[in-house]
């Protein structure tokens, strides 16, 4: 019985923890401008994160090696450092976006300008990373993140023409007024949002934190293969409600308030209240995950003691990194840069950094020195390879598309 | 050494060439591009304002949510207006340009008025404001379509 | 998987691995390896080198002196800033996906001791990326890795040379990693010129960064477990 509870809890937190500010904003923007024509992009992205999260989780469970251990061991110190720099810039950008997202969410209830909330939010994030137990942080924020299910409820309440939604997705039905380059740009952004590299840094390091062993592989796979796709359904619901409510009015999303408007339309005050709790939990959870990921990756590259499974005194450099990056994130946000803009940039740069993260994982997941009998099977390798090609194409296309479309304007 | 110092002095001069304080003077096509983006944004923001007022009337919105959303909309509207107003349109399309400019200014006013009404809780004015916003919404869409 | 007592390739299996102490606490990375050169030319791995003084030179393999000088210049008041941290190879209990020590981590890393009389201390990174000259003049291959013979003290017995970039080997040419087939084939293709030179057939010019081979590189022998 206890075991089933653990599995259920894992799945629920995986769903609640799946969506972050990048998913919220990108899916809403895409829904409000392109309808459901990018539904398949989300599906492909979610399958991709499942494939690679499972691989990195398996490596972590069997060999206790997290992602940046592998990066350095397989790419060497120089390419590894390049990779670290690029990945950390992207993860830091995401970290900024998440803290900004928490502040924007709180602004929606408090009417206090988000800029005043930023230092407070960052302080609480830091405090949680400094003090809270890893499992408590994961479970509480993951479960509260489930509040975002109101998006799905709202969609059901709005009762759109489901057949039309499916056909838009199947036909890549781009609205006439938009260019294909803009469509492709947002497809890349959506892909980057679904497969953000920090998710794998965090997932594999979390596996080491929670002392997974090969016996936990079943639970881990249940989390990934049930939790993530259901999280992906949440992403589709966000796009779905935007398609139903905002697209017909020509309301292209550029603030968090607009993201939640369809829920207000469909469900009223109570729905909106639950939604805001979901906003705060999802962005706060992701802020914790990205903040930790920065510390994890740098410490793993240099071999420092890291993790919340040891006391803060035993992992001082790791916690110093977290503190420094939190302060830096506050500094960036206090320049009054629009957090939504940071979010949009972070998902596109994530797309650029994707192969850097996923290539070493694929290589090591095939190495019996690390995994013994748990090396990749045919399916994992087949999918892994297809995705590697896809990720490379996306990564190469991302920046040119960003320039050509002027960030999707 | 001397040459590299000279280089350091000249490079910023070269880099700042063309960054003077004169208004940018795009050609007609570039101006239309900017105007069309601004009109799209205005459609979105006027639509948002109208939707927020409607949901406020239906008691669907919580506490500061509506105000926060409209403050952001007002902000973004200001940027859209500025993006067009700081350009010097070519003489050939001056009439068209002033129409777009007027329309955007009106939209800016309307969003601001909506925000003011929301903050002061002047519920009686919502239907009238929404009517105005919806009319503007259509005009902006039409203007965007004919660019 | 206790590889230290089987055949292993230094760069592939030892360099850049995580070092953990006897309790599982993290110590650092194997930033470089200390090689002791005996008068008879025998090369033994005698220690793990850790810390910035070992890592910084590897960031610029062909300008490692400059890199180390730069590192010194950042804080010239410190004596021995160029001297890396050191853990004796005898303190290593096991090597699998991590390097496990026999001791607790507190105080386990000491400044690298001076060489004993008649011995010379080298670094693995100096050998890696060295140029290779064959019997008929310079070769396009460079040193990518070297093989260690098992035993109480791991001894270098062969040098692996290749034309590919060092990052592209990743074990596909050497151990049992054969999947995904397409990736393995691609990487093998890039490294099709990978070959092996016995240490008996080469003279290492440490200062000139050159390995002079008296034979052409032979095919790579597969590692067995």
UniProtKB/TrEMBL annotation, chain A:
It comes from Nocardioides phosphati. It is found in: Membrane. Pfam families: Nramp (PF01566). It is a multi-pass membrane protein. InterPro entries: NRAMP_fam. Its main location: membrane. The chain crosses the membrane at residues 37-55, 82-106, 112-129, 141-159, 183-203, 224-246, 266-299, 320-341, 347-365, 385-407. Keywords: Membrane, Transmembrane, Transmembrane helix. This is Divalent metal cation transporter.
Automatic annotation (TrEMBL), chain B:
It comes from Nocardioides phosphati. It comes from the Bacteria. This is DUF4142 domain-containing protein.
Automatic annotation (TrEMBL), chain C:
It comes from Nocardioides phosphati. It comes from the Bacteria. This is PRC-barrel domain containing protein.
């Amino acid at each position: 019985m206890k075991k089933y509870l653990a599995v259920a809890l894992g799945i629920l937190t995986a769903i609640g923890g799946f969506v972050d500010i990048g998913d919220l904003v990108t899916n809403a923007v895409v829904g409000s401008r392109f309808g459901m024509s990018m539904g398949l992009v989300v599906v492909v992205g979610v399958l991709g994160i499942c494939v690679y999260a499972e691989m990195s989780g398996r490596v972590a469970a069997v060999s206790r090696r997290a992602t940046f251990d592998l990066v350095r061991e397989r790419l060497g110190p120089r390419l590894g450092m390049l990779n670290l720099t690029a990945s950390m810039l992207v993860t830091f950008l995401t970290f900024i976006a998440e803290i900004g997202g928490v502040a924007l969410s709180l602004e929606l209830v408090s009417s206090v300008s988000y800029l005043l909330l930023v230092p407070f939010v960052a302080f609480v994030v830091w405090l949680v990373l400094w003090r809270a137990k890893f499992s408590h942080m994961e479970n509480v924020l993951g479960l509260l993140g489930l509040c975002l299910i109101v998006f799905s409820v709202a969609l059901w309440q709005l009762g759109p023409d489901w057949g039309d939604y499916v056909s838009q997705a199947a036909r890549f039905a781009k609205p006439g007024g938009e260019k294909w380059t803009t469509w492709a740009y947002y497809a890349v952004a959506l892909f980057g949002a679904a497969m953000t590299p920090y998710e794998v840094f965090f997932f594999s390091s979390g596996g080491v934190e929670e002392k997974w062993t090969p016996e936990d592989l079943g639970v881990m796979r249940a989390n990934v293969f049930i939790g993530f796709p259901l999280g992906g359904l949440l992403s589709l619901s966000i796009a779905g409600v935007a398609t139903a409510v905002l697209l017909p009015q020509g309301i292209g999303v550029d603030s968090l308030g607009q993201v939640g408007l369809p829920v207000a339309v469909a469900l009223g005050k109570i729905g909106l209240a639950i939604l805001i709790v979901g906003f705060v939990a999802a962005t706060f959870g992701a802020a914790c995950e990205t903040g930790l990921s920065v510390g994890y990756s740098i410490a793993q590259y240099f071999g420092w003691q890291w993790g919340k499974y040891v006391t803060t005194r035993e992992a001082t450099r790791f916690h110093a990194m977290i503190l420094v990056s939190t302060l830096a994130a506050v500094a960036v946000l206090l320049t009054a840069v629009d957090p939504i803009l940071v979010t949009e940039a972070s998902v596109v740069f994530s797309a650029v950094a994707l192969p850097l993260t996923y290539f070493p994982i694929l290589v090591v997941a095939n190495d019996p020195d690390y995994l013994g009998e748990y090396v990749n099977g045919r399916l994992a390798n087949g999918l892994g390879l297809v995705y590697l090609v896809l990720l490379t194409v996306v990564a190469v296309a991302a920046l040119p598309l960003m320039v050509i479309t002027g960030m999707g304007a | 050494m001397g040459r590299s110092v000279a280089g350091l002095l000249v490079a910023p001069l070269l880099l700042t060439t063309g960054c003077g304080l004169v208004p940018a003077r795009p050609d007609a096509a570039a101006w239309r591009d900017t105007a069309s983006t601004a009109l799209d944004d205005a459609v979105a923001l006027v639509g948002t304002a109208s939707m927020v007022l409607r949901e406020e009337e239906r008691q669907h919105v919580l506490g500061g949510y509506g105000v926060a959303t409209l403050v952001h909309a007002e902000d973004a509207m200001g940027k859209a207006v500025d993006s067009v107003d700081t350009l010097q349109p070519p003489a050939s399309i001056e009439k068209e340009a002033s129409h777009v400019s007027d329309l955007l200014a009106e939209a800016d006013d309307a969003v601001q008025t909506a925000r003011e009404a929301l903050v002061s809780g002047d519920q009686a004015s919502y239907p009238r404001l929404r009517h105005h916003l919806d009319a503007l919404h259509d005009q902006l869409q039409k203007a965007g379509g004919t660019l | 998987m206790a590889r230290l007592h089987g055949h292993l390739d230094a760069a592939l299996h030892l360099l850049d691995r995580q070092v953990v102490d006897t309790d599982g606490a993290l110590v650092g990375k194997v930033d470089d390896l200390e090689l002791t050169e005996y008068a008879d030319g025998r090369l033994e791995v005698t220690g793990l080198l850790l810390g910035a003084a070992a890592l910084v030179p590897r960031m610029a393999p062909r300008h490692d002196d400059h890199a180390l000088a730069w590192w010194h210049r950042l804080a010239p008041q410190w004596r021995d800033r160029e001297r890396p941290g050191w853990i004796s190879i005898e303190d290593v209990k096991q090597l699998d996906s991590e390097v496990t020590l026999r001791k607790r981590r507190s105080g386990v890393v000491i400044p690298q001791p001076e060489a004993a009389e008649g011995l010379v201390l080298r670094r693995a990174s100096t050998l890696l990326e060295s140029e290779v000259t064959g019997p008929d003049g310079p070769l396009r291959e460079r040193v990518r890795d070297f093989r260690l013979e098992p035993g109480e003290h791991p001894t270098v017995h062969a040098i692996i040379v290749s034309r590919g970039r060092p990052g592209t080997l990743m074990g596909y040419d050497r151990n049992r990693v054969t999947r995904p087939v397409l990736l393995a084939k691609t990487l093998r293709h890039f490294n099709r010129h990978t070959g092996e030179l016995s240490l008996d057939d080469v003279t290492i010019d440490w200062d000139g960064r050159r390995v002079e081979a008296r034979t052409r590189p032979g095919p790579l022998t597969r590692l067995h477990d």
